[in-house]
Specification:
heterodimer, A: ABC transporter involved in vitamin B12 uptake, BtuC, 2 domains, two-stranded antiparallel sheet, two-stranded parallel sheet, 17 helices, about 65% helix, about 5% strand, B: Rossmann fold, six-stranded mixed beta sheet, four-stranded antiparallel beta sheet, ATP hydrolysis activity (chain B), ATP-binding (chain B), High-affinity branched-chain amino acid transport ATP-binding protein (chain B), ATP binding (chain B)
């Protein structure tokens, strides 16, 4: 490409002609020759049309890449640095405008969207929670966890079985599931403290499978593959079913509304939406606190951390436990929104999907994880017609991402520190 | 003079291989002590054994009168021993300031601003690069950062493992000048080095380690003129 700052039309024309010739070679035999019995017809018009489209497209692309914006775009794609930039201390992200807008939009959505759209968005938000949880373990602390779905299952089954056996409702289970999953995280964390990389991945993979197999085979307690039903959340004791259980009034009767099965989704959505924001806020603060820095330091160099007096046991366990507890909360929402859980929702494919969200989003980047979670859950819904090719497209996407954007969609930025008041500049 | 750190007949094994054999040494309050030796003599093992990585299999390591042989690394580090490890081991993806903040772990953030200012006065280059990622700095600057990070925990004893490793001679000179400045503030320094010339000039006392044993000891000036040391570590001239 020419080095001058202006646009080189000649270069663009050359590119265009080359692209046109290649299009002719490719489309000529395929589109231009139509077999008709033992004879064939030449379809020159179709070929000319296709080649014309390719040439126009190439010309436009060529012009774009010669413009300043295009060059910046190319430079960003090509730069292979490890992706961490440090922003100025007084740097204000555009997010401070975007976040309030997203919040307002998010609160309006349930009242205008259809039930179907709402269920898709709920699923997206559940994966945001899962992604944020795994992001602590994999993205920040650098501990490759392939069994994250185990914590998700603990949360989901915690709600379903807790309701069935002990009558525990959604609101009690929400904090309880976080604690249960955190304890499970600690139980998994202790034996793997000395492990790194591949070995850790294998052990965590085993953990996820153990949870799933126990759920499948302990039929007397978990009802095995038949699954268990899970309760919906209640609003100060008001239920969202058509008919409330004994002694309770359903939500629609209390407010004198006509029964609509959409109410329960709107309610689940609103709770989930608030919980996601709360979790986002907590994660955001954590990365700025010493413990967040300690996670990242441990990922970068464990020996240096230990020589600096960092208690690596506490740091690793805290990462495992906080990540797991977020997974547990996601599980409670999943069970409640589905109304039913069975072990087939907690296969290794789910773990891989959550890991893909973290990797695709950009390891350690909160914004990236949110975007990737929505992308990977909403896209399959939009592309329903291609459902058979979903996993194939997923694989292609992963390969392409690793080649072009190995650090994920959103690169991590670190905020520079301002000199604090009272210190000399 | 009171002994700050004392090794008493310390043995260290890596599996069947004995890396340190009955090593005894003392570092007194306010001194600069150096340990010189060739590659593989056991110098870094000696430093790391203070932190229990690897753990000493025999003998005692005593710090301020307390036996720390079996204490955990973070216990030792939070009691006034700070190390600038071999090969620097800074956190490459973090900014310079974040690296320095990592150094405050044992004592908390209480003196953070004041200490950071002190570090920037001691190492003006770091001030210029405070918001830069550590991996984008030169080797010398990274070494300065490693030393500054260790000093952020206000240690009583600073342990340095080969601060001259892989650096240009002029940078090595600068680093040792800075160590001189640090020492003049009353800091006790235990320096492990291959660069015998610089190390012995800086040090009050020195030890020579060969194959896991202390072969010789004396003041820095004595060792610098010792024919055996000159032959083995100073090029024989």
């Amino acid at each position: 490409m020419s080095q001058s700052t202006g646009i080189d039309i000649k270069q663009s024309l050359v590119d265009t002609v080359i692209a046109g010739l290649m299009a002719l070679i490719v489309f000529g035999p395929i589109v231009g020759v139509l077999l008709d019995g033992y004879d064939f017809n030449l379809q020159t018009g179709n070929v000319a049309g296709l080649v014309g489209v390719v040439m126009m497209g190439r010309f436009a692309v060529s012009l774009f890449f010669q413009s300043q914006a295009g060059r910046n775009f190319l430079y960003r794609q090509a730069s292979k640095n490890d992706g961490v930039t440090v922003t100025a201390p007084d740097y204000k992200s555009n997010l401070r405008w975007i976040i309030p807008v997203v919040m307002v939009l998010g609160l309006i959505v349930p009242f205008i969207a259809s039930k179907y759209v709402l269920t898709v968005v709920i699923l997206g938000l559940i994966y945001v929670l899962l992604g944020l949880g795994l992001n602590i373990v994999v993205g920040l602390a650098g501990l490759l966890d392939l069994g994250f779905v185990g914590f998700y299952a603990i949360g989901a089954y915690g709600l379903a079985l807790g309701y069935e056996n002990l009558g525990i409702g959604f609101w009690t289970m929400l904090p309880l599931a976080a604690i249960m999953a955190a304890v499970a995280g600690a139980i998994l964390g202790f034996p793997v403290l000395r492990m790194h990389g591949d070995y850790l991945a294998i052990v965590t993979l085993g953990f996820g499978e153990i949870i799933r197999l126990v759920l499948t085979n302990w039929t007397s307690f978990t009802h095995g593959p038949n699954g268990v039903s899970a309760p919906l959340p209640t609003l100060f004791g008001l239920e969202f079913n058509r008919r409330a259980s004994e002694g309770n009034i359903p939500f629609h009767e209390f407010f004198g509304l006509k029964y609509d099965s959409g109410f329960k989704y709107i309610f689940v959505y609103l709770i989930l939406f608030l919980v996601v924001w709360a979790v986002l806020y907590v994660k955001h603060r954590l990365t700025k606190m010493p413990v967040g820095r300690a996670w990242e330091a441990l990922r970068e160099d464990e020996i240096a951390c230990r020589s600096l007096g960092l208690n690596h046991v506490l740091v690793k366990l805290s990462a495992f436990m906080l990540g797991a507890s977020t997974g547990g909360i996601a599980g409670v929402f999943f069970a409640s929104y589905q109304g039913f859980v069975n072990p087939s929702s907690f296969t290794f494919f789910e773990s891989a999907l959550i890991l893909a969200i973290v990797v695709l989003g950009g390891m350690g980047s909160t914004l990236g994880v949110v975007l990737a979670a929505f992308f990977l859950t909403v896209m399959p819904e939009i592309l329903r017609e291609f459902a058979d090719y979903r996993v194939l497209m997923f694989g292609v996407l992963m390969v392409v991402m690793m080649i072009w954007k190995p650090r994920g969609l959103v690169r991590v930025t670190r905020t520079g520190f301002a000199t604090r008041k009272g210190t000399v500049k | 003079m009171t002994a700050l750190l004392e090794f008493k007949d310390v043995d260290v094994h890596y599996g069947p291989i004995q890396a340190l054999k009955k090593v005894s040494l003392t570092v007194n309050q306010g001194e600069i002590v150096t340990m010189i030796g060739a590659n593989g003599a056991g110098k870094s093992t000696l430093l790391m054994s203070i932190f229990g990585q690897p753990r000493a299999s025999g003998g005692q390591i005593i710090y301020q009168g307390e036996d720390i042989t079996r204490k955990s690394a973070h216990y030792v580090a939070s009691n006034g021993l700070a190390q600038s490890p071999e090969g620097r081991r800074i956190f490459p993806g973090m900014s310079v300031e974040e690296n320095l903040l990592m150094g405050t772990i044992p004592i908390g953030m209480e003196h953070c601003d004041e200490d950071m200012e002190r570090m920037f006065t001691l190492f003006p280059r770091l001030r210029e690069r405070r918001n830069q990622r550590a991996s984008t700095m030169s080797g010398g600057e990274q070494q300065m950062l490693a030393i500054a990070r260790a000093l952020m925990s206000r240690p009583k004893l600073l342990l340095l493992d080969e601060p001259s490793l892989g650096l240009a001679p002029i940078i090595v000179k600068q680093i040792f000048q800075i160590l001189q400045d640090v020492a003049s503030t009353g800091m006790t320094i235990f320096l492990v080095e291959q660069n015998a010339n610089h190390a012995l000039k800086l040090a009050d006392r020195g030890y020579v380690m060969v194959n896991g044993e202390i072969r010789m000891t004396g003041t820095g000036a004595e060792l610098l003129v010792n024919p055996e040391v000159r032959e083995a570590y100073l090029g024989g001239h």
